[in-house]
């Protein structure tokens, strides 16, 4: 069986980056280049199911020092859909346990002929540090509570796909803002594209200082809900917390979970996003997570499209 090589066009001249480390440093034009490329890949690959082997001969390495289901799998699949080879590095079975440093580990992986490293690490700034120490391209797949740029992009693409625009929308990020790299990437991306962003949650997880990033800070979901076009429900990251930021999970759910009763108070076409993994019954009830307003699984498909676009822009540009 022959594989059809689809012409996706050439990398736009305005795209000159070798790495994707954050959304903070990207312009609105660069954000739109990635989003438009993701749409093109989604269409050309039959909703990301077919191969477009335009990165044949290239090799991508996944270096994940934290657990992942969606990001790791979809970066691997995106690379393979584009015809690239992939390496999946597992920190738990690596020579890190023998004292090898993070940078030495990455340099040794790179020496095997790697074109791009996709890295996830619990320490903020890790992707930036890596980019300063290796010759290949680096893509940030989440660095502590700093940024998760492809998650921000796939969230924004899911909004644009369902609601047709970003400019002028009111998007609330609800939940554990303090520990959320997804919140930061969403804020940078959404604001550059003209959305009004609200961060909402208990005061122990949402500082007033977030206003310095140009967002609205709210503590009462029921007050802001009627004017929201989109709710992005961020997971309570129990694993990153040293003290419990609210008296009980039940109380958190009473105040902030998106449920049937709250849906009745929202705009008729409100869009519900959640980056996953979701805590069913904590941030969102199962009927809402699986209901018609939810784009949770569309986000996962769009993650594949966004990651195909990012790999193509970074590697297809001949870096
Ligand atoms: N949303 C997200 O980053 O999911 P994973 O941790 O499963 O990759």
Which helices and strands appear, and what pairs or packs with what?
Elements: H1 28-44, E1 59-64, H2 70-81, E2 85-90, H3 102-110, E3 116-121, H4 126-131, E4 137-143, H5 149-163, E5 170-175, H6 181-192, E6 196-200, E7 216-218, H7 221-224, E8 230-234, H8 249-256, H9 260-265, E9 271-273, H10 286-289, H11 296-315
Parallel strand pairs: 1-2, 1-3, 3-4, 5-6, 5-8, 6-7, 8-9
Helix pairs in contact: 1-5, 1-11, 2-11, 5-6, 5-11
Bound molecules: phosphoric acid mono(formamide)ester (CP).
Describe the structure.
The chain is α/β, with parallel strands linked by helices. The chain folds into two domains: 28-147 and 300-315, Aspartate/ornithine carbamoyltransferase (Rossmann fold); 149-299, 3-Layer(aba) Sandwich (Rossmann fold). Helices cover 35% and strands 15% of the residues. It has eleven helices and nine strands. Strands 7-6-5-8-9 form a five-stranded parallel beta sheet, with helices on one face. It has a four-stranded parallel beta sheet with strand order 2-1-3-4, with helices on both faces. Helix 5 (149-163) packs across helix 11. Phosphoric acid mono(formamide)ester (CP) is lined by residues 68-72, 142, 148, 151, 275-277.
């Amino acid at each position: 069986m022959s594989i059809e090589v689809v012409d996706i066009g050439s990398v736009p001249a305005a795209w000159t980056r070798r790495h994707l480390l954050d959304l903070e440093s990207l312009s609105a034009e660069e954000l739109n280049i990635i989003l438009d490329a993701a749409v093109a890949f989604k269409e050309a690959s039959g909703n990301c199911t077919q191969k477009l082997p335009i990165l044949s001969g290239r090799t991508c390495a996944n270096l994940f020092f934290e657990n992942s289901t969606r990001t790791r799998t979809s970066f691997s699949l995106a690379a393979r859909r584009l015809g690239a080879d992939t390496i999946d590095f597992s920190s738990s079975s690596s020579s890190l346990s023998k004292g090898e440093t993070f940078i030495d580990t990455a340099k040794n992986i790179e020496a095997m002929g790697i074109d791009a490293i996709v890295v996830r690490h619990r320490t903020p700034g890790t992707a930036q540090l890596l980019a300063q120490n290796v010759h290949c391209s680096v893509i940030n797949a989440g660095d502590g509570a700093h940024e998760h740029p492809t998650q921000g992009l796939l969230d924004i693409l899911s909004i644009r796909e369902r609601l047709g625009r970003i400019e002028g929308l009111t998007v609330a990020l609800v939940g554990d803002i303090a520990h959320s790299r997804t919140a930061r990437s969403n804020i940078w991306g959404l604001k550059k594209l003209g959305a009004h962003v609200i961060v909402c949650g208990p005061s122990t997880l949402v500082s007033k200082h977030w206003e310095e990033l140009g967002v609205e800070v709210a503590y009462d979901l029921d007050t802001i809900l009627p004017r929201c076009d989109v709710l992005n429900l961020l997971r309570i990251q129990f694993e990153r917390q040293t003290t419990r930021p609210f008296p009980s999970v039940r109380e958190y759910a009473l105040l902030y979970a998106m449920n049937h009763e709250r849906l009745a108070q929202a705009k008729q076409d409100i869009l519900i996003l959640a980056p996953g993994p979701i805590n069913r019954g904590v941030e969102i009830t199962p009927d809402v997570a699986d209901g018609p307003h939810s784009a949770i699984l569309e986000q996962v498909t769009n993650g594949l499209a966004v990651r195909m676009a990012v790999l193509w822009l970074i590697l297809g540009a001949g870096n």
